[in-house]
UniProtKB/TrEMBL annotation:
SUPFAM superfamilies noted in UniProt: Ferredoxin reductase-like, C-terminal NADP-linked domain
UniProt-listed InterPro entries: Flavoprot_Pyr_Nucl_cyt_Rdtase, FNR_nucleotide-bd, OxRdtase_FAD/NAD-bd
Keywords attached to this entry: FAD, Flavoprotein, FMN, NADP, Oxidoreductase
Recorded GO CC terms: cytosol
Name of the molecule in the record: NADPH--hemoprotein reductase
Protein's UniProt keywords contain Flavoprotein: yes
The organism's taxonomic lineage, starting at the top: Eukaryota, Viridiplantae, Chlorophyta, core chlorophytes, Chlorophyceae
Enzyme class name: oxidoreductase
Length: 195
């Protein structure tokens, strides 16, 4: 429901101010290199956590992995934790994800439906259930973890779940687990694109 107020965007407002100017109008464009990308070595295991619109970059990751496999490259495991409200209403890429599983671009898919049953089910709950697999991929196989989506709740919950997982599976104290996760981030193996 709108508030009745007109809200103009930054770019559209800038273009509107350029109207009526004689001659050529030039728009400043700034390119930024993204650090949120697949490892250079496609055999490195990846874990992706992206509920809702957080799935967007991971669709690109899976398309790239499909192309790499087609080119004969060996792929490491790829696990996706995805979440949406309900299977019937907003599991929009179900067929695409099933095809990625069938092709081998995706090794495992864990889907959380937050409004499907009596209890809310979120991606971090699936991460807790798959703690052994996550620990194996991150610690033993030196994999990468990517998180994309809501910064206010989901990313914080996923981070807490990761720290708890490192404590439990790695036999570390809370401080040691936080340090391990920080080292993972510093090494570029735990990346977040959150808003």
């Amino acid at each position: 429901m709108g508030s009745g107020r007109l809200h103009e965007g930054v770019a559209s407002s800038w273009f509107k101010r350029q109207q009526g100017q004689a001659g050529e109008v030039r728009a400043p464009i700034f390119l930024r290199s993204s650090h949120f990308k697949l490892p250079a070595d496609p055999s490195v295991p990846i874990i992706m956590v992206g509920p809702g619109t957080g799935l967007a970059p991971f669709r690109g990751f899976l398309q790239e992995r499909t192309a790499l496999a087609t080119a004969g490259k060996a792929l490491g495991p790829a696990v996706l934790f995805f979440g949406c409200r309900s299977r019937e209403q907003d599991y929009l890429y179900q067929e695409e994800l099933a095809a990625a599983l069938a092709s081998g671009a995706l090794s495992a898919l864990h889907v959380a439906f937050s409004r499907q049953g009596p209890a809310k089910d979120y991606v971090q709950h699936h991460m807790e259930r798959e703690a052994s697999q996550i620990w194996q991929l991150l610690e033993a196989q030196q994999g990468c973890l990517y998180v994309c989506g809501d910064a206010k709740h989901m990313a914080k919950d996923v981070h807490r779940t990761l720290v708890a997982l490192v404590q439990r599976k790695g036999g570390r104290s809370g401080t040691e687990a936080e340090a391990w996760v920080k080292a993972l981030q510093d090494a570029g193996r735990y990346q977040r694109d959150v808003w």
